[in-house]
Amino acid sequence: MKEGIPRPFLKWVGGKRQLLPKLLEAVECAGSFRRYHEPFLGGGALFFALAREGLLSARTQLSDINPNLVEAYQGLRDNVGGIIGTLKRHRARHCESYFYQVRGRVPPTQVGRAARLIYLNKTCFNGLYRENRKGEFNAPFGSYANPNICDEENLRSVAATLADVDIEARDFLAAAKLVRREDLVYFDPPYDPVSKTAAFTSYSKGGFGVDSQEALARTFVTLAQKGAKVILSNSLTPLTKELYKDFYISEVSAKRVVNSRGDRRGAVMEVLVTSFPITSAWRSHYRINGSAPTVAGMSGFERMLTKQWLAENNYQDVADLIDEVVDEWNKAGKQTRRNWWEVLAGTASGKPRTVAGRQFPVLRAAQERQGLPATPNAISRNQEESPPRIKVSGRWTR
Ligand SMILES: C[S@@+](CC[C@H](N)C(=O)[O-])C[C@H]1O[C@@H](n2cnc3c(N)ncnc32)[C@H](O)[C@@H]1O
Fold it and tell me: DSSP class of residue 68?
């Protein structure tokens, strides 16, 4: 079945069309958000799906390190008519020798370069963008009976969708600096290779090794602590399991087509990591493992979840009080892993606890969470509230 419009106008290695239903469920679980960020844009499968669902607000931030890819998006946004005209000319002359002629010459204008990239992407072998070490497009000709070189309706819809979007060529670290509290971020990095031979990280010159995967995991933690809602996909490997073990991890299977050899295609396991709990249809598959965070610095993540629950249930003043205390401790260089639910549950007899000179209210939900009896002085401001979860990490079983 053909997707609606706008849809990705390029076929991209690691394209996420297959994972889309799971990604959309994750976005649904993230709840409302301010701006959307996609720093490993590629073909932009999730971005276009969110656009089709009408879920994007103004000032969406898209980026990718590949300047040629980004230029194609910018070109479509700024001059879709020019690109369509050029693509029609390519379509009229399309054949193997014309393909190599276009491949061999980079045009001087943005419109020309954007149309060239779309044309080569639609007509090259396997339909995938590939660059050599010099950053030159090097995929060979693909013999398709009827390649869709100029999908005018979709290109116009893509251009209209991009009108309000900020799109730049940048590294994900620079892109992460633009993320604010309550923003939604989707990280879809080049995958950690399942085996050495399976590596396909050459989307552009550079590559994405273990150091980059680790830097990305640190960025994930920083943004989650900042109060952004973060989603990430990657391959299921010992490294990715270790890097994200304190977050919500779902294992999903997906068919890969990166390798041109048929025998190397097939189902591989991928992970979907979220900084927030998944509470929709997947909940019934969710196995709570009850383990406490173990990675140094992760206590901030636990605190973030606590604050998120408090804010959602009408206890923003209590969340602010926690921040006040933690800020004070940070300034004094004090490292702490305070369990705030223990504080908010009061003593065993229901008396309020005092931390750093401030008295904290006793919350009935916190008492329930800690397995303590409810006491008459405990407050419960939100009729709908259910006790917060005990865990910070878990895994969806299949
Ligand atoms: C898995 S693909 C993204 C696929 C995309 N989600 C889709 O639906 O087509 C990864 C992308 O990350 C980009 N990339 C690689 N290293 C990067 C970096 N350090 N910062 C930002 N983008 C990078 C690549 O150019 C590539 O387009």
Answer: H
